[in-house]
Structure formats: structure tokens, C-alpha cells
Write the C-alpha cells for this entry.
Amino acid sequence: MTSQRGEQANELVRGLSFGSVANQYERYRLDYPDELVDAVLQYARGPLRSALEVGAGTGKATRLFASRGIEVTALEPDAEMAHVLERTTRGIPVEPVVTTFEEFRTARHFDMVYAAAAWHWTDPASRWARAVEMLVPGGVLALFGRPAELQDPDLFAAVDEIEKQVLLEDDPAVVHPWSVEDMTAADGLIDVVQSDLPCVVTTTAADFVSRLATVSAYLMLSPPARADALHRVRAVPRPIRHRRHGATVPGSTGLTAAQELRAPCSCPRRPTSGERSSIGTSRRAALRQGRRFGNYGLHTGPSVFRRPGTRPA
């Protein structure tokens, strides 16, 4: 019992570590592309008028969906992050709620439940069933994030080596990665698809390091250790300062979506041109991307396109 309480306390501490850098989080974390909303709307069988966001942060994804007229109930457990969220979403249909997904109570059901690089903070024992419970018949569960790595192999290797030395290994009791297989196996979800929306970001050394400073793995270090780690990373991409356009960080917005089983239409849908049926990212690489950029969706096998009312063989 004591061990379980300790694990829960560690999870709470790390999950609530972002508030200390809420303004930097809003400034330096990457935005999501408009194409993400287009992909979700195309996937949905019907109009999306309401959404429940899990772990809204400062509103990066919140603003994207609300700007399309979707009424978003945005759950954010960290009060400081929620303060920035409220400020950045004024004037659009967003209701910030300071709570966790597990503690949120409502009689409402939503057309969509989604999480932007936050699903790994939810309870793996209950998250899938709770998402289904929150959805209207045929509603959409959409999970996405923006993993990215430095393109220059020398810079990547140097930063990766520093992180191996200074960052702690992710504790499975604190961070709860999920996979497309988990979503596929969840009762009440069907028609699981994955999409990648490619993008390339050019960043300066200062901005890259400032973004790392908002990552929970760095925030869990003591202030002196964190400052030393960021100083070491900042010293690595010295060539960036001599490049006119900075360093290139290729990546993509990875979207995984499913529909609630009680779909109003029994017609199977086919994957669109942007959806793919196989993923080759290793578990270790995915964990490293998650540690660095807050995306813990582990694509460890083929995607499953499941028809309503059927189970995978």
C-alpha cells in the first residue's frame, strides 16, 4: 500500500511539474497544424460539436479545435497551466476545468474525446473505458502528439548522449505509454486508424533548449542539475549559431483515432491517403521521443482498421 501511494505521489508530482514553466511552455512548445483538425473532421462520421480535452496544457490544441466552432471542455489539473489556458482561450468556445480526467464528473457526453501529448498521464486501468463512457454513440477518440528529433546526426547523437547521462529512466509507475494495440483491444472502440502529418521545423539553439526546459524529464531534475544539463545541451549545437536558418527538426503530427462502438452508421470506412497500415518505430525510440517531446504513443505494430461490431482475428 505504501509503495502504491508513493507511485501515485510521484506521478502527481511529475504530471504537475509543468506549472512552474507555464509561460515558457506556451511560448516554446510547438503548435499543431490546421491539417490535424481537417483529418479528425474527415474521419468522423458526423459533425463534431462538442469535445472533451484531456490534459489541455496551455491550450495549444484547444484553440485549434475551438476555432472551428467546436465547444471544448478542457481539463487541466495544473492550476498554473490552467491559468494560461484560460487567458489564451478567451473569446472562443472553451470551458477550462482544473481537474484530472479520472476525477472529472459530468452527466454530459461528447462528440469527441481527445488528448494532445497527454494520454500517457492517464490511468491505464481505466482510461479506455472512461473515454468510451464519455462519448456519444459513434463519437471519436483522437490521440496525437508531435515527436521530432534533430536531423543532423552529430547533433542528435551529442544531445542523446547527454540525456542518457543526466535524465532518469522513465518510471512505468509514473508514465503510462499507450499503443495502437491497446486502443484496438479496448472494449467499445472500433475502426482504429493512424495518420501522419509531416512537417519540418527550423529552430535556433536557444529555442531548442528552451523547449527542452519545459519537458517533465528535465523538470524533475534538481534546479542545479537541470541548469547544468541544459547548459551542456546548449553548448552542443554551436554550429547552429553559424547557420543562417538554424537547425532542422523533421517530424510529424501523429494521429491515432477510433470511434465509439455504437456507431449510427454500420458502413465501414476506408483509410484516407494520409493513413498508414504499418508503423516501424521501436519502443525504445518512441520512449525517447516521448521523454523529450511529450508524446508517449508507442506504435509497435500494424494499425488495425476494424469494422463496426467486429473484433480483430
Q: What stands out?
A: The domain at 2-151+170-200+251-298 is CATH 3.40.50.150 (Rossmann fold). The two ends are 39 Å apart (CA to CA). The chain has a mean pLDDT of 77. Residues 99 and 105 are 10 Å apart (CA to CA).
